[in-house]
Amino acid sequence: MSIIQFLAANWDSVLVALAFLVLVVVLIKRGQTKILKKILFNLVTQAEKQFGGGTGSMKFAAVADWIYQRIPAVLKLLFTEKDIADMIEAVLEEAKKAWGTNENLKEYVETSPIVENLLALGIDPDAVEEQGAPENNN
User: Fold this and answer.
1) Which of 92, 71, 91 has its CA nearest to residue 29?
2) Are 39 and 70 in contact (CB under 8 A)?
């Protein structure tokens, strides 16, 4: 009963404290949203590169899985699955625009992992194509 009496006597202070806590949570969530969107942009781009076109649901599942593995537990409390799904969709739209306007991103997304591996090894992919399949090199 003393808690109720305390709340009744200090309702204005309790209300201010609750409003402050709500404000802090909202500000944290907004600030973390910007960081989360940057991470999601990177993950969406990686998924596009890895899985290619026509695999939307697979890419979406991969990005959702990757983001849940990477974000801290505190953020999992602040963002629901629907929040994450909405952010992935929003970031995907931004990423598609960026891929269309930024030649470096477009080239990155369109470069196959095999070509990337050959380049990392110092092998010219065009030379490999000219040699053809290994069975033709007798």
Assistant:
1) 71
2) yes
pLDDT in the model for residue 72: 74
pLDDT number for residue 26: 72
C-beta separation of 86 from 37 below 8 A: no
Q: How far apart are CA 8 and CA 22, in angstroms?
A: 21
Task: Give the total residue count for the chain.
Answer: 138
Rounded Cα–Cα distance for residues 42 and 73 (Å): 20
Would the pLDDT of 46 be above 70?
yes
pLDDT (tens digit, 9 = 90+) per residue, 86-109?
A: 988 999 898 888 888 877 777 777
Dihedral angle, C-alpha 58, 55, 103, 101, nearest 10 °: -90
If we measure between CA atoms, which residue out of 90, 110, 89, 88 comes closest to residue 99? 110
* Tokens (6 digits) for 51: 């899985």
pLDDT for 58 equals 87
